[in-house]
Design brief:
Layout: E1 13-14, H1 22-32, E2 36-39, E3 43-44, E4 50-53, E5 57-58, H2 60-70, E6 72-74, E7 79-87, E8 91-96, E9 111-114, E10 121-124, E11 137-142, E12 149-150, H3 152-159, E13 163-164, H4 171-177, H5 181-188, H6 198-205, E14 210-216, E15 219-226, E16 231-239, E17 242-251, E18 257-260
Parallel strand pairs: 4-11
Antiparallel strand pairs: 1-12, 2-7, 2-13, 3-6, 4-5, 7-8, 8-11, 9-10, 14-15, 15-16, 16-17, 17-18
């Protein structure tokens, strides 16, 4: 099952019977994806994710071996960003700065010289195929078995011996603060609002249960469906990337839709 990458502030993630449901995975992914952190120790580059044990910190021996073989991804005080999140039942894997293949190698900044006197020349030992941007790597945090629930705050606390995510302002918070007050309120209340874009609707209501398309009066509209029978069904209609209509109805056991509910 491929993880879904979307953005929003994190809330507790319940681990039930050793299996994490899709909607539960989303809650944790939202709080981690695109977050910035500051390296508190040297973070090595590594082909395999660097292990971190909850409540114990990094596996120092494996980190030291990777540092010797691959050099640093980030030195103490450097800024790193989570660019991919993968959630398993007992661990979370975080790609930093685009991962092992995403950044430049440490030795690409090293130069060697040759010649004599004023004719001395230097050249990078990494050759001309130089990557731009910071070096990348991945870390894997193993959850403790005795914990019944995992929150974004827990994950950041367990990562703190290596990377501090608390001093950096949340990318989600920065994004939400730029929205109109009414949109911020709708996201907080977990409801859609006309004028929202698709990303904002996902932030407010999560991934839709289903989607459908239709052409009406020359417009190609897309409906996102939330809720299941029996209960409230919400239809969020998009024209392009913008919400143009929201309809709420009640569906009985047979799936038949009842009268439209008045908006709250």
């Amino acid at each position: 099952m491929k993880p879904i990458l979307i953005l929003l502030a994190g809330v507790p993630l319940l681990l039930q019977a050793g299996k994490i449901a899709d909607d539960e995975r989303i809650l944790l992914l939202r709080g981690l994806m695109s977050e910035f952190g500051t390296a508190k120790i040297v973070v090595p580059r590594s082909k395999k994710p660097l292990p971190i044990l909850a409540q114990q910190g990094p596996d120092r021996q494996k980190w030291a071996e990777s540092l010797q073989e691959e050099g640093p991804c980030a030195r103490t005080g450097d800024l790193v960003q989570i660019t991919k999140v993968e959630i398993d039942d007992d661990k979370v894997t975080l790609q930093l700065n685009g991962g092992y293949k995403g950044g430049r190698k440490w030795y690409e900044n090293v130069q060697v010289g040759g010649g004599m006197g004023n004719n001395t020349r230097t050249a990078p030992i990494g050759g001309g195929n130089r990557r731009s941007g910071p070096a990348g790597t991945s870390v894997v945090l193993h959850f403790p078995k005795e914990f019944e629930s995992i929150s974004v705050a827990d994950v950041k606390k367990w990562l703190a011996p290596a990377i501090d995510f608390e001093k950096q302002r949340s990318a989600t918070e920065n994004y939400i603060e730029q929205m109109k007050p009414e949109v911020q309120a709708a996201i907080k209340e977990q409801r859609a609002l006309e004028g929202m874009d698709k990303e904002q609707v996902i932030m407010a209501m999560g991934k839709p249960r289903g989607k459908s398309r239709e052409t009406k009066d020359g417009l190609e509209l897309e409906d996102w469906v939330y809720g299941q029978a029996p209960g409230k069904i919400t239809f969020v209609t998009f024209d392009g990337d913008k919400v143009v209509k929201i309809k709420e109805a009640f569906a009985g056991l047979g799936g038949a839709t009842g009268p439209t509910l008045k908006a709250q």
